[in-house]
Amino acid sequence: MVSEQITERFRWEDCLYLFSSRWYVVLLIGSLVWLAGASAKRKLPPLYEVEAHLTLQKDASGNDFDPVSRRFPTASEHDLLREAAELDSRTLLSEVAGALDLSSLWKIKDVGALMSRLESRVEVGILPESHSLLLRARGESPSEASDLANALVDRFVARKDAEARAELGARMRRLKQEMLGRHAEVKSIDAELVAMASDPAANPAESSQLRRRRVAVRNLIHSLEAKHQLALIEADEVHGKARLVAPARPDAAVATTSIWLTVPSIFMAGLFAGFGTVLGLAVIFRRSRWDAISHLTSRLEVHFAGFAPLTGGGSVTPSVIPDTILESYRDLRNRILRLPAGECVWMTMMPLCRKEPCGEAITSLACVLADSGSTVLVIDADFRGPSLHQYFEAAQHPGLSDYLTGAMRLEETVIRSRRANLWFMPSGPLHDDPSGLLIGKRMEDLVRDLRSRFDYVLVASPSIHEVSDAGVLASISEFNTVITPYRGISFRRLHETRVALQTVGAPLSGVILSTRVKTVQPTMRAASLKTSRTLPAGFVH
């Protein structure tokens, strides 16, 4: 059986297999979510969005500098972030909610829920280039959205106007207080001058200095009176720092949909719901890899299925293949031993597609069959992409094509490997018509001779979806096995392979799932090792 150490390394592959084998559950749950989202989108009324544009000035009076109010810095009032926060504040929103009676309009009695909905329907944007704010409001109708936006900006502008009037009133009071103080100062100077005039010993220089001081204070009083008069005039036309550039208009409203009810969001929600359901069921009803094998066997109606760990190296040398890796192949061997076969098991092994490597899986399976005492012959019949000779540390030819063309005898094409009970026949050079060689009489003689001399004959074949050779090899074999990666397994492709085999009168007997593992074992040895071309005892061509 597969060791637990190897099994624990394929959690993501198990998830991919789970989704591939339970795609109908994902589709069912996703369809239910899509239908629910489409129904909600249809029943829920769309929201209409309008915009109102506000601009902020530097000073309420329109002047950049005021010598009287310079002691009260107003730079923070021009901070766009602060103004945006004030426009979007709960205080302003609550005032507007009461003025528009939104509680009755929206039929919400709870204050917290009312404010939450109101905050979700109002958004303030900042335009630093023009030193302005953009208020977006949404409502169930264009008029409702525009009323809400205009109410907010009107209340905000009214606040700023009130602040400007309050500031102007405070300035007028300061001017008046200062004028009263200057008048008192003038009276004090006049009293001092009267006292000095009645005193013969008074210093004329001091009297002259007091008169100059009196003139200066009187001039300052005249200046303050002019400023106070100007402030009185400005009081009739005072306005705040906020200006409404463009109010919200119902005819400019744009229908919007909640991001959760858009087609991409509903689609993704359905997929996540389907995946989550499958993963949740897998966690609750925990399944092992043997459950996956059982499901694969019953679904495809094959005799056996199993795992084939791949290390990226591989060789027939006994010291190269770790025991933990061989354990998976021993499980495959035990399943193959239960096949309804005669004295010889002739099995064609093909990849699902050409890009999927299967040479290491075939070689490792042949090794464990040979270790059990059975005589095993591996034939590389993939003329267009031979690879098994690398694992057997042998040359590519002479081989099968040399024998089928009559150029060599069988004893010259079969190689005895360094592993006991294991022989190998390379593919040989590529022929102009490989499938023509396979349907000739020499191939019939070869099959008859090898069946009588070996317990197992494993034939490496190309994919049946790509070349015609695979169909000929499959029709010769009693058993046909497909090797496909466990990660991203395609059941549709496996069913197509089964149908393709049935068209040539061949059964699909087994499926081997290859999995990548990491190992610190040494890689394949160099091809300089000597090999023998001695066939099993008593072999006669």
What layout of secondary structure does this protein have?
Elements (H helix, E strand, L loop, with lengths): L3 H4 L3 H11 L1 H21 L3 E10 L23 H8 L2 H11 L1 H5 L4 H10 L1 E6 L4 E8 L2 H56 L6 H32 L6 E5 L7 E3 L6 H22 L4 H12 L3 E7 L12 H15 L7 E7 L7 H13 L4 E5 L7 H4 L8 H5 L10 E2 L5 E4 L8 H5 L2 H13 L2 E5 L8 H8 L2 E7 L5 H13 L6 E7 L25
Major sheet: size, sense and barrel closure?
A: 8 strands, mixed
Total number of distinct structural domains: 3
What is the helical fraction, as a range of percent? 40-55%
Relative strand content: 5-15%
CATH H-level superfamily of the largest domain: P-loop containing nucleotide triphosphate hydrolases
Tally of alpha and pi helices:
19
Q: Please write the CATH class name of the largest domain.
A: Alpha Beta
**What class, by secondary structure content?**
alpha/beta
General form: elongated
Average the pLDDT over all residues and give the rounded result: 81
CATH topology of the largest domain: Rossmann fold
In the CATH classification, which architecture of the largest domain applies? Answer: 3-Layer(aba) Sandwich
Q: Uncertain regions: pLDDT < 50 for 5+ in a row?
A: 1-10, 59-77, 520-532
Structure keywords:
five-stranded antiparallel sheet; disordered N terminus; Rossmann fold; elongated; 13 strands; 3 domains; 541 residues; Bacterial polysaccharide co-polymerase-like; alpha/beta
Describe the protein's architecture and organization.
This protein has 541 residues and is of the alpha/beta class. It folds into 3 domains: 4-43 and 259-284, no CATH class; 47-256, Bacterial polysaccharide co-polymerase-like, CATH 3.30.1890; 289-516, Rossmann fold (3-Layer(aba) Sandwich). It has 19 helices and 13 strands. It has helices at residues 4-7, 11-21, 23-43, 80-87, 90-100, 102-106, 111-120, 142-197, 204-235, 263-284, 289-300, 323-337, 359-371, 388-391, 400-404, 434-438, 441-453, 469-476, 491-503; strands spanning 47-56, 122-127, 132-139, 242-246, 254-256, 304-310, 345-351, 376-380, 415-416, 422-425, 456-460, 479-485, 510-516. The strands form 2 sheets. Strands 6-13-12-7-11-8-10-9 form an 8-stranded mixed β-sheet, with helices on both faces. Strands 1, 2, 3, 4 and 5 form a 5-stranded antiparallel β-sheet that branches. Helix 5 (90-100) crosses helix 7 (111-120) and helix 5 (90-100) packs across helix 8 (142-197). The two termini are 39 Å apart. Residues 1-10, 59-77 and 520-532 have low confidence and may be disordered.
